[in-house]
Each structure stands twice: as C-alpha cells, then as structure tokens.
C-alpha cells in the first residue's frame, strides 16, 4: 500500500545546525499519526517541508507515490495538505473573517469579493467551534486561545484529506482541547488523515494510532501507539533507558518561614476582584483557572506588568511601585511571561544577552558590560537548564520552541529572585524538559524562593504546596497538596464544591 | 570636464592648471555655462580640473580641497551661498591661489575678481518693463526662486523696491517656488483663481516658463499683446526656448543672463591673475564696468540685456530683439 | 482609550459592547475627514474664493499628478515594501520619452522616434524601472528601502545625464494631451486621478489580489502558507507602482508642457506624508486607498489655503509642517490607536 | 552559505564548534571593508592624489559633520525608531544660536546675547527638538516616521522663518572654533568625529544602555517584561540624537563660518543610505556603530573618487547611485543574509 505522504532521507541544515538528518516518515491513509520528540528534534522543520514552505537540502517528499509539487505551486500543496503551524499564521491586521478565508474568498460575477457572504460563513464556522468572537474584529485583538482556534478552524475547513497539527493544544485549556478532540474524532471517522504533534504524551495515547519518534534530528522508531508504553516512549525520545523519574514528594514547607508575597484586596478592572493571599518562603503556590478567569492578569500584576486599580502587593517586605517591572525586579521578583514570543525574548539577540537581560548590573561596573562575564553567567544558565545550543552567542530565534522557553526561564532565574512568578511556564516544552524545568522550580523553592505558578495545566500544578483556584475573577477554592484532579477541574469550571 | 589623467602634472612646463567648480548641473543656464567653460579654457591656454558642487556649499568646500590637492594655480567658483564660502576663500588666499568668482559676490573675504551681472538690475529691468506695459496699474505675480538664494532675493528686493517707488498702482503677489516648475505652476494657478484680473507675471528664472504658459493657455489667456485679455510675461535667463517664445509672441520679454560671458571672462581673469596682471575700477573693453565693492574685491559687472519682441526702450532701459546674434541663447550650436 | 469616551456610559450586555469598536474600525478610514472639513472652513473664512469650483478644480488638478505616486506608494506599502524611487521614475519615464522623440534641434532631444511613441515609451520606461526594483528586492532579497534609495539617485542621475540637466521643451502632442486636455470642462488629469483611485479602492478592498497584498504585508510567511504566490504578487505590485509613477509623470509633463531634469525631485516626502497621514502603515498590511486619498487631498488643501491666505513666504513651510503634525494628532484621536 | 566556506572541514568538539559562527557574526561588521578597499584601489588608479594624507583628511573632514547625524540616526534606528528631523535640527540648532548672538547689523541676527552663549544655545535647541520628538512619539504614541517627517518640515520652516531665508554670517568666535580649529595639525572636527564614534561603539556594544537599545528595538514588550525602562531609554535616545545633530550642525557652521537656511537640507537621504549600507536595520535591533561608520566613509570616498576622476557633472549622480547599489549587493554577499 502506498503511503498517503512519505518523506525519505530528508536532511535540512540551518547554518551549522542540522535540523533533520536523513530523517523520514510514512503516513498511511486514515492514520492519526503522532510525531513526538524533544524540543529541537526537528518536528516543526519536517512540518515545513511536508507543507512545501521549505525545500529539503537532501531527500524527497512524495504524496501518494507522486513526487511533491514545486515550491512555487502553492495551490497544489494546499490541495494535498492543510496545516496548523506551531508559529502563528494569523495576520493581525486583517479581520477574523478574512483570516479564516484568506485567499479563498468568494467572488461575485465581477470577480469582486463578497464580504457579506464571507462574514456569514466565517461566523458559522466559528459557531461550530463555540468560539464567540465578532468576525469583523481585527484578528490581532483576539487572545491567544481564540487565535489558536481560528487557525484550527481554518485548517480543518479546507476539506483536505491530510491535516498536520503542530502543537495545537499548547495554548488551549482542557475544555477547548476536548472540543478539538471531538472534532478530530469526527474527521477520523470520515477517513481524514492526521499528523499530530504534541508534548502532552497522554494526548497521543488518547487520539493517535501510530507514533513516530524523532531524536536529535533523526528518525528513531515508528510503531503503533498501543505497542509503546509511556515509559518506553519517553525513553525513545530522550535516548535514555530511564523513563520519567517519579515526582519527588515535596517535604512540607516549614511553617515558620517569612512571608515573601502578600497580596491584599487586589482589584483590576473586570479581570479580578479583591484577591487576598500570601506566599511564604520556599512555598510553591499554584494559581489555577480556565482562560479568562483572571489568573494571568493577577500574575502579571504581581510581576509589575499591570497596575492594579486597588489593593497592595508586598514582596519580601517591600512594596514595589504598582505597574513597574523594574521595581518588582528590584524587590526580588523573577518572571516568566505568558507568551514567550510576545514578551519573553528578543529574537535577534543572543542567548547570553537574553538570559542576562534582567541583571545588567551583574555584568560589569559603571554601566559597562563585560562580554566575558556575561558569557560565563550565560554558560552557567545554559548548563543549569540544559539548553540545547552550540553556545551562548546564538540568537534566540535559532532555537526550537522548548529551548526558547528555557531561555525565558533562565532570564527569570538569573536575578536570584525571592519570588518567582510563572505563567504557563511549560507551554510547548517537551516532557523531559518539562520535568526538568519544574525540577528547577522546586530546586529554587528549596533555597527559600517563593513561587507562584499561574496555569491551567495540572501537570504544572502538581508540585504546588497549595492551589488557589480562580473563576471569573475570584478565588473560589483553596486546596492543599494532594488534591484530586477532578476537584480542581470542577472548581476551574465554576462548579461549586462543598469542601 | 577635463577627463581623468595625471593630476600631478601641476607644475612643470605645461599649461597652467586651473580649477573650476560648477555650482550645479540641473538648470539650463548653468549647463550652458558648463558647456562654454572648456571652450574658453582652451582659448586661454589653460588646463582645467573641474568639479561640481551640486548646489551644496559643503561639497564646494570639499571640491576646492581636492582642487588644491591637484595643484591648481587658480580657481573659478560660483558659490550659490555667498556667506558660507568665506572660509574657503580665506584658505585659498593663504595658499596664494587667486580666485575668480562667477555670478555671486562673497559677503566676506577677498577674490581676485567677481564676474557677474547685477541681479538687482534684473529685478529692476523686469519691474520697469511690466510697469510700462501695464501703465502703472494692475496686479502682477512674481514667481520667486528660493528664499535661501541670494540671487533670487536680490531680484525680489529690487523688483519690489522699484514697483513701490515707480509704480505704486501695481499690486505684487510674491510666491516662493523653490526654483521648482511644478510649484510655480501650482501657485500661479491658485493666484490666478483668486485674482482673475492679474495682468503681469515676473518669473525669476526660466524654470517656470512652460508651466506658466500652460496655465495661461488653459485659461484662454494666451492671446496676442493687443488683446485686452493679454497677460504680460517677463522671464529671466535668456535660454533659447525663451527667445523662441518671445519671437512667437507667447511671452513678452526676458533678461538674458550672459552665460557665455560668464565663462569667457572668468577664465580670462584667471589667466590674467596667473600672469600677474592687476585691474583697476573703471570701464572695460567689453562694454562693462569694473567697480570696487570693497578693498580687495573688484567686480566686473557684465551687462545683461533686456530682450523684447520689439527691441524698444522701456523707462530708460534699452532692449534687444530675440534674434540678436549677441545673445548667448542664439549661439549654443557651437 | 478612546473607546471609553465613545461608548455610552451605561453598561451594555457583552455582545453589544463590541459594536462601537467595529464601527470605530470602519471610521478609521474617515479619520481625516474632520481635518479636511476644518481646513475647508478655515479656507473659506480666509478667502471666499476657496470653495469656488474653479479653486477646487485647481486643487484637484495640482494634486492629480502627485496623487498617482501616492496611489502607487500605497500599493507598495500595503504589501510591506517601500519604493522611494517613484519620485525619480516620475521624472525619468517621461524624460526618456522626450529624449527619444523631441527633435534634435531643440534642447537635448535625439529625435529618434516619432512623437506617437512617447506614451508607450513612458510607460515602458516605468515598467522597466519596476522590473529592476523587483529583481533586486524580490529576486535577490535586497532591502527594499535601500535599493529604491539607490535607484532614486541613479534614476535622477540618468535623467540629468540624458538631458544634460536641461529641460525638454516642444514635447510631441500625444505627451501633452492627458496633462492638458479638458473632459466635460474638467481637466482630464482630474478624471484620471479619481478613476484610478476608485479602481485602487476596489483593487485593495474587493479583489483577491488586493487582499493578497494585505496578507503579504501583514505576515509574509502566513501569506505563503495560505497559498499566495508572494513573489509574483510583489513583482506585479512593484512594476505596477512604477508604471503608475510613469503615468503621473506623463500627466505632469503634459501639464507643464516640458520635462525638467528635476521633475519629481523631493516629491517622495509629500508622498509618504500623505500616505501615512491617511492611515497607511509603513510596516505593511495596514491602511486603505481611500485613506491615502484623503491624505494627499488634505496636504494640497493646506497648501492652497496657505497660498490664498498670503502667508509670508518664509513662514509658509513652518506652518505647513505644523498643520501636518496637528492633522496627525487629530487622526490619532479619531483613529484611537497608538501608531505602530 | 558563507559559513561553510569558513568552517574547517574537520569535525570539532562541541564547544569549539561555536567559534566560526561568532567569528562570522563579527565579520558582518566588516562587510563593507572589501568595498572600501576596492574604492581605495580604484581611487588610487584614477588619481594618485587619492591616498595622500591631504586628500584623506579632506575626506574625513567633509564627512565629519554628517557622520554625527549617522551616529545619531544609528542610535535611534537600533532602538527601533527613526528620526528624519535630524537633518533640520542640524541646520536649526546653530541657526537659532546665530540668530540670537549675531549682531543685528549683519544679516538677520538679533544680537540679543553675547557670542559665548552660542554653543550652549545650539545644544539646548537640539535638546529641545529632541524633547518635542520624544513627547510626541514616546508620550503620545504617534508614529515616529511621520512625526519626525512633520518636524523636518516645521524645523526647516522655522529656520527659513527666523533667517528670512538668508545666511547668518559673522558668527561669534566660539561657534567657529570646533569646526575650524586644528588639533595636532588635523581638523578638530575629525578628532571629534572619531572620538564620538569610538564612544558610540562602546555605548552600543559594551554598555547596559546599549543593550537596552537593542532589546527595545528587537522586541519592546520583551524588554519591558525584563525590567528595562523602555520609555526612559527611548527619551534619552531621541534627545541624545537631536543633541548630536545639533553638534554636527555646529561643526558645519564653524567649518563654513556661516549658517545657511538650507543647512542640512536633503542630508537625511545620505544618512539613511550610510546607516543601511553599513548594516543597520530599519526595523530596529540590528546593526553596529562600526558598520554605520564604514557606511558613511564609503559614501564619502565614492564622492571623492568621482570628483578626482573628473566625471562629467551630469553623470556623477547616476554613478554615485549605481555604486551605492553595487556596494549594497556586495555587502549582501559578504553578510550572506536576506535583508529584512
Ligand atoms: N530558522 C531557523 N534558523 C536556524 N535554526 C533553526 C531554524 N529553525 C529551526 N532551527 C533549528 O533546527 C532544529 C530543529 O528545530 P524544530 O523547530 O524543527 O524543532 P521541534 O522539534 O519542532 O522542537 P519544538 O518541540 O521545540 O517545537 C533546532 O535545533 C533549531 O534550533
Ligand atoms: N474583512 C474586511 N476587510 C476589509 N474591508 C472589509 C472587510 N469586510 C468588509 N469590508 C468593507 O466593508 C464595506 C462593506 O462591505 P460589504 O458591502 O461587502 O458588506 P455588507 O453590505 O455588510 O454585506 P453583504 O454583502 O451581505 O451585503 C466595504 O467597504 C468593504 O471594503
Ligand atoms: Mg516545533
Ligand atoms: Mg454587500
């Protein structure tokens, strides 16, 4: 049987980085094929080659046994494959409706675009995904999750028989993921083929039948999902015999420690109201909540990105000026922002510059910067966080998504913070790295740093000593370690619990 | 230009090397000048090094440096900024390199000779011509050059002064045009809309020529002088096209700047300077007068003839007909 | 946030609340209309001539030639590029036509071809410039700003070279026609300008090609992913813009019955000012043709009012610039967004 | 890809492998050196004067004044903004000083203040312009390109206004000093230019402040989230750039012993060309001070060679532009990256 799509012996280099090294994949018709691998394994590179955005340096791509079309023939590619790329392909200036139907506008008999029809179709399409936005809004005004849905809805609306999804779930909350999976199952029944990339391995087990593992730019194995237990899958990805280490059970935080964060009566517009809580030295506190619950805004307020309308924040005994990141930084706050592309790093600057951006004073006297000192500091951070790079001088834009996230983490840790504020810190990070990053967080906490993690990923929250669940701008529940998943999910969705 | 080649041949038994910096190459007038210079250079037995300062005084300064490096024995300059040239003059003076200036007179500093026509006289001649033609009343538009240009300002001031003194019944609308034909046409059109009874136009340079004619034509005002709707137009420069238009009766007059004479006498005086000759104020052999502007600065004021269709005399200003063979605009072929 | 000031103070239900924002987005096209009305009122007060048909036609005619440059630049800007060389194409294209067709006796012409060739030559010269630009920018991936800056200088230099710095006169009749004819009593160049802008509005707002320009300007990778042949679209945009500039130059030459070596010199400042005041973004993907039109209209109205007001020559420029900045601030207030 | 040709064929250990890439990144700074050498060789062949000390000093002196504008623009560009008004500040700042200090008799001066005030006034005028720019751009969030385009026109207009279009001369001695003095036999303006560029290299490459500029130009939100006071940095960059422009204007005025109403007019084209050829990106966060210096040096060397070669005036401009485009293509080949 000829595979629906096949890549053979594909090599792709970026300068010295070998992103793909004689790698390949065979996707059979009707499969839902998972592609897994650690950050930088070359998955997205393969996607760009399979969708005709880039030509491989060596090797070839075949669709149904035929050689792939020329790169310039975009229409031929689009008939063969639809894709949700890892990098956003939303055009912020254009309306949501137009983004959905970009370059497939309906024309009237004069060859002019029928905006009204287009808008109606767009509204209907989004309604099927229960995304409630006005399609006339510029797409740039959507939040990350809505934008992700626009991408997904677009890719799935082509009627293509082969659809690639590169980490579609990284920006979605549980309910949204459920909606996506329901839709994928419907399409599976119609015989649509999927290539699915995700760092949430349980998702692979949930909807995929076949799995291909890439490691270090090479193809490692392809097998049916059922034949590959979780631990072996991780081992194949990581190249080690050992699977995931058991999460160390945290020792209880000594109750005598000082208060590192005190939040009193904090209110910010419609986002959240009258929030009170404290974090003690060495304590890890989770801030759970669905999209729009106000958790992100709250965390950003603590980090100094926003100024609250009312209430106070006290960090290690100091009250930083509201809305001032430098002040918060000086008070000892380290910060991992929500969207790394937006606020996390400067793509053209080197890893060293990005990682040390928060600590210019440590790099030299009198406003000068010693390149050697900076690189030494950066090498430490790179080693510390196991960032996969040839050296500290590489621009961050040359890193894979997960490694970029580690740079953002490095930036937060560089200042030896008293309080670490993390917003969805492991978005797009592979399992090993995730374990690793969270391990680092614990390590940091063990040295007495307080940690606030705002996330809706239960995996991120598992190491918390305490969990605050937010719903519609209020803290609706507080849970001690050892909570049950379903309680948290219920609380996040606003179901009243009589605890 | 002189072409490339051994710039080191400054000294020795060859011809004396003279540097000429052209002020710009984007107007008809200066292009004629540029055309004449090699011809008169050869006539005077000079080897020329040329450069072009493109209407930028700091380029002129740099160019003069280059000319000095190439060992010139005399320099011809035509700075369009008469104040900023002072340091350059000073430097040339200390190096004992004589300078002949064309078209403009330096505000400070010495030069061996200034060869120019009197720009104030241009404005005055234009004023008298229009004043007589309009019998001392009506509205006229003056399409000025650039406010930053000394020559333009001289023409403007002289025109205004003369109008106030001799023809108080005439209203003058002055419009700055940056020496730009499109701007001139636009402003003229606007003024004509606001004041349809405008009867005269003074263009301070030929750049505005065809645009002005087009506006008149569009409004049906391009009619012979005996028609009461006629608008009297006097231009400035004396390029061939102006002479042609005068002969055709489309415009009425122009003041002919002596581009050929500029080139001829600039190089003549440079040669004289190298030969160690000196001059005194007084009339010359070529129908002009040398005046002493201030100690150390002599100026040969070449005559700039008024050209009119009939060659008559206007308020004491004699004029020549457009076909006159003494006009540089009629001698461009060679 | 301007939204707050525009939204009625009462709290609306959530779906209702988005309305004003959308209405506002459409309004952004009309951001300059208040400024235009203000200038018109001031103009009328300053000089009652201002609103007379004659003067309005005068304004439109004087802007018609440059406005084609604005139109061309808007297309290029929307696609995320810039073309500074348009101002030189504006002079060079008709200059080449004049050079080849004007009889050798008068001025610098060669008189190689009959006058009827002048319009095709003008447009072809424009297209050729566009091809060179596109080759360097699209094919070789050079930076558009600096390529076209270089081209601006080269093309201006070429015009100076072929003309010897002189002005071409005695143009063939076909070159004069468009710039000087009257259609229904109104200059042909005004009709052409309005027609082309109308076509531009349709092109950018209602055709696949136009939307492809926005997509490319907004995010070229996304446009590629959506199946747009970005290179081909950019080629046509750059070549088309140069042809439009050549056409504008043709109108100007016809209007002035001559081609000066400096034709178009410095116009690019006005062109950018018009486009950007009119709401066209410099980073691509933003702005409309209608906005660009209001931008250039506003600038020429200001010029006209200042001339009619008889402002002393040395202060005209300062006032002109001051008014542009104020118009910009006004459009910021109306548009409501921090600009880029 | 140039990397391959530079990497030794042998496989090195991982820590060693980063070397070539970094060496290459540094090499990009020197992208123009081959072009500069080529021009020097051509110059020497064309005219043996070229490499004489006298002529080299001439080149450096001529570029010294404008080069301060390049320096200023580079700072602004790295921070992701643009300042077109620098060319007008270059004229206006010394113009204001001359206006206030030159005795009323000569030209347009008011003679209100003694000559010793002229330098402080020049710098203060520059700073004031910078403050207005920063206010409009940083504080009110207006688009920098169009604000400074407006300011370019306003400031030029102001200079025309106060001078009545005339040139100020008889400047006080203190204004003349920097532009005309010799230090160790070399014009002071050359020393100043080299010193300031050296300072600029240190500032951008080796200071906190410089890194902040790059960060802001590269991603302003990330810079903010990393605790950089972006507004404050942008304020100082814009004000500093204007002060540098004023200083450049002061040198020019001293050199020419006068302030013309057109001083600096059109210089912004050269400034952008120099910066961009020198590798400074127009979208922020890219380029080095050394690169910008090589850019302006190359441009002035080209000018000088063309003058020495005695190229006919009407072709100088075309050649000049052509060489710029070629230099750009060369730097593309050396730099190896598609530009923006
Ligand atoms: N444009 C680029 N320039 C230079 N290097 C790149 C570029 N794109 C990818 N790379 C490199 O290629 C390698 C593979 O990257 P790729 O994005 O395919 O990884 P990935 O498997 O998708 O990782 P992730 O799970 O983090 O998304 C990485 O080492 C990355 O640094
Ligand atoms: N997505 C869009 N992008 C840009 N402009 C748009 C968009 N949608 C609509 N417009 C503009 O909105 C205006 C109205 O468009 P149109 O007349 O097609 O809509 P409609 O009348 O509401 O719908 P219908 O076609 O159902 O009658 C047009 O000027 C069009 O340019
Ligand atoms: Mg990826
Ligand atoms: Mg409709």
Automatic annotation (TrEMBL), chain A:
Keywords: ATP-binding, Nucleotide-binding, Repeat, Transport. GO terms for molecular function: ATP binding; ATP hydrolysis activity. The keyword Nucleotide-binding applies. It comes from the Bacteria. SUPFAM superfamilies: P-loop containing nucleoside triphosphate hydrolases. Residues 5-241, 245-497 form the ABC transporter domain. InterPro entries: AAA+_ATPase, ABC_carbohydrate_import_ATPase, ABC_transporter-like_ATP-bd, ABC_transporter-like_CS, P-loop_NTPase. The keyword Nucleotide-binding applies. This is Multidrug ABC transporter ATP-binding protein. It comes from Nonomuraea glycinis.
Automatic annotation (TrEMBL), chains C, D:
One of its GO terms (molecular function) is transmembrane transporter activity. Keywords: Cell membrane, Membrane, Transmembrane, Transmembrane helix. This is Sugar ABC transporter permease. Coiled coil: none annotated. Its main location: membrane. InterPro entries: ABC_transp_permease. The keyword Iron does not apply. The lineage of its organism: Bacteria, Bacillati, Actinomycetota, Actinomycetes, Streptosporangiales. It is found in: Cell membrane. The chain crosses the membrane at residues 30-50, 56-78, 90-113, 119-138, 145-169, 181-206, 233-254, 266-283, 290-309, 315-335. It is a multi-pass membrane protein. GO terms for cellular component: plasma membrane.
